[in-house]
């Protein structure tokens, strides 16, 4: 497995990885996903095994202080082999930052605990309740 900068050609595979987790944010609108991953301040990395994309990470950074890990996913068949760790480490390196914040799903908490960290409580806020029903 090697890590490369995300390019648009990776988008269908990235969408498949997200869809497999039941995550609609990228999968529901590929054109919006394309724009999102090309936005200023977004850094995205894919893990490639041969021709296959087996992992994806994206983050948002101001390049100075704040960085948020937005998406991290490894294909089910490729888990437990260090791909997730490599994606996080590569994300740190490419962003050139010392810290990043992440809203973790309960099932991934133990993965994040394997990194130097400080646990903080997080919330996802919605502009309105109606909007919330559409979001993951
Ligand atoms: C969470 C996820 C990205 C981890 O990727 P991975 O490639 O399996 O993780 P790695 O093999 O790099 O594991 C790194 C370390 O975390 C540990 N780890 C990984 N997943 C774990 C889990 N679910 N529970 C406990 N420990 C875990 C590994 O033992 C390893 O520890 P070590 O470095 O001390 O040996 C992957 O399981 C995944 O994509 N899950 C579904 C999507 C998801 O939940 N993403 C995060 C959303 S917040």
Task: Write a structural description.
By secondary structure, this protein is an alpha+beta fold. Helix content is 33%, strand content 24%. The protein has six helices and five strands. The protein has helices at residues 11-20, 24-27, 30-37, 83-95, 109-112, 129-134, and strands at 2-5, 42-49, 52-61, 67-74, 101-102. Strands 1-2-3-4-5 form a five-stranded mixed β-sheet, sandwiched between helices. The radius of gyration is 15 Å and the shape is globular. It binds coenzyme A. Residues 21, 72-74, 79-85, 104-105, 107-108, 110-111, 114 line the site of coenzyme A (COA).
Compose a concise summary of this entry.
Helix content is 33%, strand content 24%.
Number of helices: 6
Distance between the termini: 29 Å
Molecular shape: globular
Radius of gyration: 15 Å
Q: Uncertain spans, ≥5 residues at pLDDT below 50?
A: none
- Residue share in helices? 25-40%
Question: How many runs of DSSP E, i.e. beta strands?
Answer: 5
Q: Give the averaged pLDDT, no decimals.
A: 95
Beta fraction of the residues? 15-25%
